[in-house]
From TrEMBL:
It comes from the Bacteria. The lineage of its organism: Bacteria, Pseudomonadati, Pseudomonadota, Alphaproteobacteria, Sphingomonadales. The chain crosses the membrane at residues 25-47, 68-89, 153-170. This is Uncharacterized protein. Keywords: Membrane, Transmembrane, Transmembrane helix.
Amino acid sequence: MTTPALIAPAVSSYPPSFAGDPVTFGWALFSLITITSLSTAIILEVIRRWWGSGVTINEPLGIVMAGLVSLLATIWLGAIGDVAFLLAWGEVAPDTMARILDFDRMCDASTSPAFGVFCFLLIRGQYLVHFQLTSPTALQGDLWPTWPMVRRQMLSIAVLLFIAVGVTLSK
């Protein structure tokens, strides 16, 4: 556990790795918030669809869905601690920052098991998925997203950009 004494008081509104540059800080914050938000939204949507579909893990679609969830969980775990760190920098007490840094380390360490699950599912299901993708009846219908689907995601990204700019300018 990091002791508060090891965390230097904030000289700048931005962490030292950004060298006081608000543009790089804002871009990093926007990127990480976008990654965590979209990962969360997609994970919840996949689980919602999977829950009602009756698809099992032993079917190609179940393997793809579980693999997607585990890969996105890996990405989410890698980014969420950094989001907390960037949002809290210079805003919280040293004890709280020490806890946030511990949380970030735990999340980073948790990416390995989540990615291991993804690799296991990829190896386990590669033949089933390949068979499904090459069968004549696979993937019938239009695979491209509709404009309302794209517009909703773009609106989410615009809101996140607005939040990142606001947090950056307020520091």
